[in-house]
Write a structure and sequence with these properties.
With 324 residues, the protein is mostly helical. The protein is built from 14 helices and two strands; from the N terminus they run ααααββαααααααααα. A two-stranded antiparallel ribbon has the order 1-2. A hairpin with a 1-residue loop joins strand 1 and strand 2. 40% of the residues are buried.
Length: 324
């Protein structure tokens, strides 16, 4: 069964494939994607990232910001409980709607129901968390074979959840949140490629639902949205301004839920859980990647050069995987 046998795959961050029933997708080649407008918004994104790199420490030292951070730090002891309840609720919503991992991944056999139920029930006890992780891993592998790698990569954040569940009660628990941050960031960055490589998917959704573009043309608004997603994903990968990123994403999800309804709730509940954890934890890494360089100019160079490498690399891989 090929990855294009199904019309839609489903996805977080107002993923347009949830709401389109046309499977005749066509990706643009890189030479068409890279336009003067593309380069302009790439430059703007880099300026914002560089500014965030420079002022990040100053923001954290602000008196009011410090009080908020201290308040959020009080909830760190409830992190695992929030994770178990949130993920369990998200999986339960999927079970009740006859889906798994995503709203459009159908529970079409009895054993899938069984695996999903095991994943949910195993979250009830700390010692059974690895079993829940293995169950989710089985569901993800099945999705890869049933819906194809192209669709399944949209949900690679589940791999971070699997790793978290497997190691959170072991000696490797210090790496659990790091993996969750990194893989969630990669998932968000991967999602942005859809808007860059196949922008007409998002554009058609904007026309169909009459969504506001805030004064920008439809194609430019989609491009800006793609760079925002990519930048937020990169920030999560780097490990700084994670609380700010979580707040932005939560706001976006609230807005999209008001437009698209219950499908968005089911599709985003697991992600909301991760964002709540990011709000509580903050940095989530012993030392953010960009902090490996002490001089500010080296940090800025690291952030900007690697962002461009991430952009080109993901775009190339996205087009290649699409053509498999």
């Amino acid at each position: 069964m090929t990855m294009l046998s199904y019309s839609i795959s489903g996805r977080l961050y107002a993923h347009v494939k949830w709401f389109l029933h046309d499977s005749n997708w066509k990706s643009h080649p890189i030479k068409i994607i890279i336009t003067p407008s593309f380069l302009l918004w790439l430059g703007v994104t880099l300026l914002v990232l560089l500014s965030a790199t420079i002022i990040n420490k100053q923001i954290e030292r602000n008196r009011w910001v410090s009080k908020i951070l201290i308040f959020l730090n009080r909830f760190s002891c409830y992190q695992l409980t929030i994770f178990r309840i949130g993920i369990g609720t998200g999986l339960l919503l999927q079970l009740c709607t006859g889906s798994y991992l995503a709203p459009t991944f159908a529970l079409d056999s009895w054993w899938l129901y069984g695996i999903l139920i095991i994943a949910i029930l195993s979250l009830l006890h700390k010692r059974l968390l690895p079993l829940s992780g293995l169950a989710i891993a089985i569901l993800y592998i099945h999705a890869v074979f049933q819906y194809g790698l192209f669709h399944s990569l949209d949900y690679c954040f589940y791999l971070g959840i699997v790793y978290y569940l497997l190691v959170v009660n072991t000696r490797l628990r210090s790496s659990a949140l790091t993996a969750l941050y990194t893989i969630t960031g990669i998932s968000l960055a991967w999602l942005s490629m859809e808007k860059m490589v196949m922008p007409w998917l998002s554009e058609s959704l904007i026309y169909e639902y009459n969504l506001p573009t805030f004064g920008f043309s439809v194609d430019e608004f989609v491009l800006i949205s793609a760079f925002i997603e990519l930048a937020l994903g990169w920030v999560l990968i780097l490990g700084f301004m994670n609380r700010f990123t979580a707040l932005i994403l939560t706001g976006i999800f609230m807005l999209t839920t008001s437009v698209f309804g219950f499908t968005e709730v089911v599709g985003h509940w697991v992600i909301h859980t991760l964002l709540i954890m990011f709000l509580i934890e903050g940095k989530g890494k012993p030392k953010a990647l960009y902090q490996l360089h002490q001089p500010v100019w080296l940090r800025c160079l690291f952030v900007s050069v690697n962002f461009c490498m991430l952009l080109v690399g993901l775009m190339t891989i996205y087009i290649w995987v699409y053509q498999l």
